[in-house]
Amino acid sequence: MSFDGITLAHGVGGPKDLPISPELAIAGATAALVVSFTVLAIAWRNPRYDAATSGRPAPAWLVAIVDSTWWRVLWRTLGFALFLYVGVAAVFGKDLVINPVFGVFYVWWWVGLVPLSLFFGPVWKAISPVRTINLAFAKVSGSDPERGVFTYPERLGHWPAALGLFAFVWLELVYPYSTELGPVRLWVAAYVAVMLVGGALFGNVFYERADPFEVYSTLVSRMSAWGRRDGVLLIRSPLANLDSTPVRPGLVGVVAVLFGSTAFDSFKDSTHWVQFVQGSTTSAYLLNNLALLTFCVGVGAIFAAGTMLTGLGDDLQRRQLPDLFAHSVVPIVVGYVIAHYLSYLVEVGQLTLIQMSNPLSNGTNLLGTANLDVSYWLSYHPTLLANIKVLAVVAGHVLGVIAAHDRAIRILPRRHQLTGQLPLLVAMIAFTVGGLYLLFAA
């Protein structure tokens, strides 16, 4: 799908955007991981991150603002106003590529949540329209939005969120009619319906654990400088904040879908895959479905194997290890999302802002942005763009190794603290090499 010179499909723009040697980038990234692990093994022998003690209280003036009722109401109002505005475009707007619904849905909502959550914390929790509607229902009925009819089953954990995320990436990357209004409206309607029913049944804990976008945003926000302990707003290092990620069932499934789907998005545009699909007698739709599933399951399986192939203490079971280490994949996900979608977010994000002034595609300029021009500055500096992408991938993996190392020396018996990490290091190297290869192959 293309308009105004921009292709509305996720991708990194192909090798022309990466005018550096792929072999050198991959070799350098692998060396960085190995050197990082070696240095950590020598100099980092005691755990340094503890969610129970890390961080310092935020300034009183900032706490007074962030914890005030008017601040929460402001962001709920803005989030719901945006929801209604885009809803009008979805219901009454024309089924054309210039309808801003597609940019809001695929760019602002999906990709934009990453930088917003990195800078400001769990953004979706603050502006979620389904939380706002559920709150309104609770006020009218005199009930407590925190409490539902039933207790949310602990064994479900984040698995519903993982399925919701997979449903989104399937629509975006595989479904052949993803850029038609009908399927997008149906997907959003189903999402809202499931969220409202879940909130009524289980209370706000349902959104914390099962809303795919809240789980996604909150997980990314673990790499921000903002955290909380016992309700108190804290400022702490991103890695210390990351260590506070709650360990729940399905956490590996969430990060596997996030990382695997982004990798598949690169892979599906590679020359080898395109040629294979074109030369196959099997339908491209079926092949892409199988490939997306394979990427997501494959990432989860590789990571699970890398964490489970280690010695254990008496108080741990092997099946617990993947979720205990899953937080270490979050920096990798963030790095790869930045590498894969940076120019897409900047350029199509601007175009979406322009289109927002004309929600019904009838020539209006409601927001005063219709006459703005898209800046292609990043695309005009391919060497800089290439370096940013490679650095994002490498930095994400190095931070992942640090997070995994700190967790390992806390929970593994001393005799396995280093050797037990080697299988996970191999998995990290596989992710790095595969991620960079796909950046160049697309």
From TrEMBL:
Transmembrane segments: 24-44, 73-92, 104-124, 156-174, 186-207, 290-312, 324-346, 384-402, 422-440
The keyword Signal is assigned to this record: no
Residues of the signal peptide: none
Assigned keywords, A-Z: Membrane, Transmembrane, Transmembrane helix
Name of the protein in question: Fenitrothion hydrolase
UniProt source species: Nocardioides hankookensis
